[in-house]
Design a protein that fits this description.
NADH Oxidase, four-stranded antiparallel β-sheet, 44% helix, globular, binds flavin mononucleotide, Nitroreductase
Amino acid sequence: MADLPSLLEARYGATSTGSAAPPVSPTTANPTLETLLQHKSVRNFLPDPLAPGTLELLTAAAQSAATSSNLQTWSAVAITTPDLKSQAATLCGDQEFIRAAPLFIIFCADLARLTTTCAQHGTPGTGLEFLEMYTMAAIDASLAAQNAVVAAESLGLGVCYVGAARNRPRELASLLSLPPRVVALFGLAVGRPDPEAPPATVKPRLPQEEVVRQETWGGAGGEGAAQHQQQEEQAAKLAAYDEALADFNAKQGRGDAPVWTYRSAHRIATVESLHGRDIFRDVLEERGFELR
Ligand SMILES: Cc1cc2nc3c(=O)[nH]c(=O)nc-3n(C[C@H](O)[C@H](O)[C@H](O)COP(=O)(O)O)c2cc1C
C-alpha cells in the first residue's frame, strides 16, 4: 500500500519552496484513496476489448452515485462498434485516442424519462422547463460518470473524459439518435493503458488553500488594503502552482509548455477558444431544454 504523503506530494507537486502537499494523518492510504489520488487521464489505449461484464460493472458503479431526489436524470450511450466510435471521435475533436479505446461512453443529461413519467401520471411537468432541472441533470450525470471513472481505474483501466463531445452537439445528437430533452454532456474513453506508450502521470493540482476556504469565502467583499492583500495572496498561490506545473511539464519533456495561468486565460479568451461550444445554449433549447 502506498504511503499517503508520497501520493499527496505527487498530487500537489514541487515548487522551489518545497512540496505543496498538506500534512495528513494517518500516513497509509487505503485502496480507495490510492485509486483516487493516483488518477491520471490516459490517452494511449490497447485496442483489446474490455473483459465481459466490464460495462455492466461500470454502469452499476455509475448508478451507485447519489442522485438528486433519486430522479436519476442521466443516461449514457456506450459505443464499442469501431465505425460508430470513429464517427463519434470525428465529432469529438477528432481525438485519436477515442478511436483506439475499446469503449467510448457518452454521458447525457436526460429529462426525457421524467417527461414520460409526467405524461404517465398526468402532471404538467412544469419543473422540467427550468434551468434548475438541466443543472440537476448535469450534476447527476457528472457524479455518475466520476463513479464509473473510479471503478474503471480500480480495475486497472485507463480513462479520459471528452468535453469535446460538445464541439458539434447537433451532429453528435443526430449520430446517436438522441431523443428530445436528452443532450450529450461529455464522453469517456475507457480501455487498458498501452504499456508501450509513455505512462500517464499524476498531474499536480492547485494548492488546497486556493480551492477550499475555511467557514466563509472570507474577505471577498473587503475593500482597499484588505482586498489588495487578498489579491496578492491569491497571485502568490497561483504563481506557486504555475511553478509546480512547469516543473511537472519539464519532467514530461514539455519544458516549453505555457504556464497554467497563461494557458487557462487563453483557453477562455475568445468565442473561438470555445471550439464551437458557444452554440450550446441554442442547442439545449432546440433539444427541448427551455432553461427558464
Ligand atoms: C469534463 C472533462 C472534459 C475533458 N475533455 C477532454 C478532451 O476532450 N480531451 C482530452 O484530451 N482531455 C480531456 N479532459 C481531461 C483533462 O484535460 C484532464 O482531466 C486534466 O488535464 C487534468 O489531468 P488529469 O486528468 O491527468 O489529472 C477532460 C476532463 C474533463 C473533466
